[in-house]
Design goal:
With 153 residues, the protein is of the alpha+beta class. 17% of the residues lie in helices and 39% in strands. The longest helix has 19 residues. The termini are far apart.
Length: 153
């Protein structure tokens, strides 16, 4: 009779702050949209010129460091894992464990909006593995497989 798909709200910055230990200048995701349990989500990062890394990377030609793009993927995946927990309480800590198959396709610059498309590959106990694709305007800019571990109590 009707659509039985459950709609889940976006995860805003206030909720992200309750899920992750990161704070400015190292919180690298602004919000998460389209979360589906712990299976998939899209993390959004607005790249702005006033971020501290652009003072030295690179003067006159600002480029978002690749390592920070990967960290943004990891934070998105970690927040999704916390969000999907049935108790809803944040774990004691979320750790970024591994990076595999990282590739950088195109520079990301101030003014870009990066979408971290995170898809679960596997999960065992308190560890999750995700495939991430960073996109700007639908174009692939980076990709990697990462894992996260939740420390609970």
């Amino acid at each position: 009779m009707g659509d039985t798909t459950k709609t889940i709200e976006a995860i805003d910055i206030i909720k992200l702050l309750s899920y992750l230990p990161h704070r400015y200048p190292f919180l690298l995701v602004d919000r998460i949209i389209e979360p589906r349990g712990d299976e998939f989500c899209i993390g959004i990062k607005n790249i702005t010129f006033n971020e501290p890394q652009f003072q030295g990377h690179f003067p006159g030609h600002p480029v978002m460091p690749g390592v920070l793009l990967i960290e943004g993927m990891a934070q998105t995946a970690g927040a999704l894992c916390v969000h999907a927990q049935t108790a809803g309480a944040a774990p004691k800590m979320v750790y970024f464990m591994t990076i595999d198959k990282a590739k950088f396709r195109k520079p990301v610059v101030p003014g870009d909006v990066v979408e971290y498309h995170m898809t679960k590959i596997n999960q065992r106990r308190n560890m999750w593995w995700y495939r991430g694709e960073g996109k700007v305007n639908g174009q692939l800019v980076c990709e990697a497989e990462i894992s996260a571990m939740l420390v609970i109590n």
